[in-house]
Write a structure and sequence with these properties.
With 282 residues, the protein is α+β, with helices and mostly antiparallel strands. Among the domains are: 7-108, Rossmann fold; 114-207, Immunoglobulin-like (Sandwich), CATH 2.60.40.1930. The protein has 5 helices and 17 strands. The chain has a 6-stranded mixed sheet, with helices on one face. A 5-stranded mixed sheet has the order 10-17-16-12-13, with no helix packed on it. Mean pLDDT is 77; it is low at 211-215.
Length: 282
């Protein structure tokens, strides 16, 4: 097998890290995670119905998972991972591709013991968080690693050069984190290293503003509103600078007061007053 190549073997094979018999059995108990709890994200995996009886494990192998009665199920030997079950696909329903990607990451960790990542772009004022995973030489998580980090500006828009150094703090088994705040806009690079000279490098950027997003609108409706209100429809926001907007309310017309005359109304008023006067005299 070439250097850097990893293999996942399901069932029996010459390169498998264990020796499998012909017996297949079912278990109703969860599968116990012996090593690599942080990799699988749980201490127990769902039961399987087609587990193969393992007669023995090859020298130098590590048992990652096993049944409650001690039958090895997932075993790692160097860059080979063996699975002693025909229906491990059942885990896809609960874990999806995450389970397989974690196994691949475990294989690739052989010979490379440090992985550091962060987002490529941050807004100004946003906290820059670095996440690291450290592994032992056999690919299992390393909970006691000392990880140093150095952050420097590449094209930072600042009069002073940025040069930050620090140490990651441990979160859990093999996982670490480090954060930097108040970086000015620009492009940055980071380099991380461990005592055994494992390294991980990368770049990120700080931007000063978010790109203006174009909002979908009903342009026909906007045209209609502009015409009815004697306004103007503008597609380019830059044109707003050349438009004089008058918020002054229109003045009401001042007309001379002219009382309205109605002979019928005057007659009715006189009649009512006469009736009232005649009633009061009785």
């Amino acid at each position: 097998m070439d250097k850097g190549t990893g293999i996942i073997v399901i069932g029996n094979a010459d390169i498998s890290p264990f020796i499998i018999g012909h017996t297949v059995f079912e278990t109703n108990s969860p599968i116990e995670v012996v090593e690599g709890v942080d990799i699988f994200g749980t201490r127990e995996l769902p039961p399987l119905k087609e587990i193969q009886l393992v007669k023995g494990v090859k020298g130098g192998s590590k048992i990652l998972c096993r049944t409650k009665d001690g039958n090895p199920l997932i075993v790692k030997n160097g860059q080979i991972i063996g699975i002693a079950a025909n229906d491990v696909w059942r885990w896809n329903f609960e874990y999806g591709i995450k389970f397989w990607s974690q196994l691949v990451k475990l294989i690739n960790a052989q010979g490379q013991t440090l992985f550091v990542e962060t987002e490529p772009v941050f807004e100004i004022g946003e906290r820059v968080i670095f996440k690291a995973q450290a592994y032992l030489s056999d690919g299992l998580p390393n909970p006691n690693e000392d990880i140093k980090i150095k952050v420097s500006d590449n094209e930072a828009i600042s009069t002073n050069s940025t040069n930050i150094e620090g140490h990651f703090y441990s979160l859990s088994n093999g996982k670490y984190e480090y954060a930097v705040e108040f970086l000015p806009p620009g492009k940055y690079k980071y380099s991380c290293s461990t005592i055994n000279n494992s390294t991980s490098n990368g770049e990120f950027s700080i931007i000063s503003q978010i790109e203006l997003q174009k909002i979908e609108s009903d342009y026909n409706l906007l045209h209609t509103i502009a015409e009815v209100s004697s306004g103007k429809y503008v597609e380019d926001i830059k044109e707003l600078d050349s438009i004089a907007i008058n918020f002054t309310l229109p003045q009401k017309s001042k007309l001379p007061f002219k009382p309205s005359y109605s002979y019928l109304s005057l007659f009715l008023i006189i009649l009512l007053l006469s009736i009232e006067w005649a009633y009061l005299r009785k």
